[in-house]
Structure formats: structure tokens, C-alpha cells
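Q: Give me a backbone?
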Amino acid sequence: MNEHGLTKENFLRALPVSLSGDPKMVALAEAIAGVLEERRKEIDRLSVYPHVDRLDEGLLDILARDFKVDWWDNDYSPEEKRRTLASSWQVHKLLGTKAAVETAIRAIYPDTQVAEWFDYGGDPYHFKLNINITFDDIDTGKQRRVLDRLEYYKNLRSHLDGVEYFMAGKTALAYAGAVLLSHSGQVSVGLKPDVHWPRSDVQAAAGAVALAAAGVCSVKLPEIQARWPRVQTGTLTGAAALEMSGMCSVGLPRVGLHWPRVKTGAQLGAASLGMAGVCAVDIPRASLRWPRVKLSGAVGVTVTGQTVTHLVPVRPKKPSWPKSTATAKIGVSVLGVYQKITV
């Protein structure tokens, strides 16, 4: 009788002829058939191995006890319990090895590495754990419980020297643009990096424009969104140069520092004209919203040879939290003959 045949009607159809004429037997058969029909929903639950990912949490706890998963924790999430149970048979086969330790802990922290003593110059039979918690809530209680259960699957002679919890994020190595024209025209450079995760690092964001004769130069560097702790922007630079006459503009980005331990190393802008024209360097306003935020320097430079108008706006910072520091914010203009300087 297949699965689709396990119905009340089919059960009653299989009732022997010798009993089908007895009303009491028919009533009893109907009651039993109704109960058996309800059991169809439980049949798949008997197939444990291929259906671990669909088992309910209560059954997972029962199976963990039956299969002697001694490192089980009833406070794990349902998904963590499913991964722990699914990997438990492999852990039992590898008990006392590096692979057993990594397999068991990866059920909770998937990106876990074991560093053995010879990997870091430790004492024999010692090891360390490197655990990635980038996508995990920082739960010190759970971390402690995971480590307390090491004894169930590690080698008894091995000793844990320490645990390093780390966060890994995206790295933007460089965003750069450069344009060179030999005579006249209009050029611009725009860059758009975006940093969202801890320990993200923007090494450089740079733009450069050069014109030989006359025209318009513009460099606009992107707004950096440093949204997590330990984000570092190394250098943000803009440069625009004209050989004869025209207009130069350098706009450095606004940096939004939203979390602690965010650093911007330097913000630099430069605009240069050979003869006559207008140069502008705009240094952005930095919002320091958390403690221990550091902005080491923000500098604007404008250089021309003869008759020009210079504008170097330097906007004050407003540190709104304790321990925020703004080291330097400088505007410099150098002119050859007749000039007007505004700072």
C-alpha cells in the first residue's frame, strides 16, 4: 500500500468480509482507520538522515540525546541545532583530531580555523582557534558555552592557548582617475567608493586632471560612508592643473564617520593655474559622531602665476562626542602678481 493509499476509506476497504457484517467491528475499524490516517504525517519523520533540515526543534533535541551529541546546547538556534546534528556523525568518526574540532565549531561559527602549535611557535600539543564572527551577533555567553564543550571532541592531551574572534569585510584597494588634454576643453573625474563593514580599508581615492592651454578642470572625490568600527581611509587626493587660463576646481568628499575607531589619514586638494583664471579647493566638513574618531589632516592648496581669484574654504569640524580629535585643517594660497585671497 503506497503513501496515497493510507486513507481511512482504503483501510476500511481492506476489512475482512467476516468482520464487515458486524456493526461493532465496523465502528471499531472506522475509529482505528481514522487514527492510522493521521499517522501519515509522521512517516517522513522516521527518515532522519535525509530530512535533518526539516525536523522540528523538539525532535532535534531528542535525536541529539539518542545519538550522544554531548556538545549539544539547547539554547542554540534551530539552524545551529540542525547543523550540529548533521555534522555529529562526522565528528564522532574524527574524535580527537583537528578536523573534529573544526567540524564541531563550524556548525555554530562556519568560518573557524584551528592553528596548531607549530603554526604560531607555541608549545607542543597546544592550539589556537580563529573564529570569524562577522555575520554573527556578539554573544559572549554562547561563545563561552561553545568553548566549554571542546573537551568532548578535542584530543585530551591538547590544550587551547587562546581564541581570536575577528571580523572580515570588504577591501577597496584603489579608486583612481586621470585625464590629460593637450590644448583646450573640459574634463572631470568622479569616483564612488562605498565602505560598509568592519575593518574595511580604502587605501586611496585619487583624481587628476591636466589641461595644456585653456578650459575647465574639475576633480570631485566621492563621499565615503564609513559605517562600522575599525574602518580606515588612507588617502583622499584631488588635483587639477591648467597651463594657461581657465578654471580649476577640486572638491574633496564629505566623510561620514558613524562608528568608533574610524580613521581618515589625509584629505588633500590642489589646483594650479599657469597664467590667469579661477582656482577653488573645497575641503569638506567632517561629522565626528562617536568617541575615538580621528581625522589627522585636511589640506587645501591653490597655486597660480599671475592675475587670479582664489577661494579656499576651510570649514570647522564639530566633534560631537568625547575623545574625538581633529588635528589639522589648513588652507594655503600662493599667487605671483595680483591676487585676491579668501580663507
Observations:
- DSSP finds nine helices and 20 strands in the chain.
- The longest strand covers residues 171-181.
- The longest helix spans residues 23-38.
- The mean pLDDT is 75.
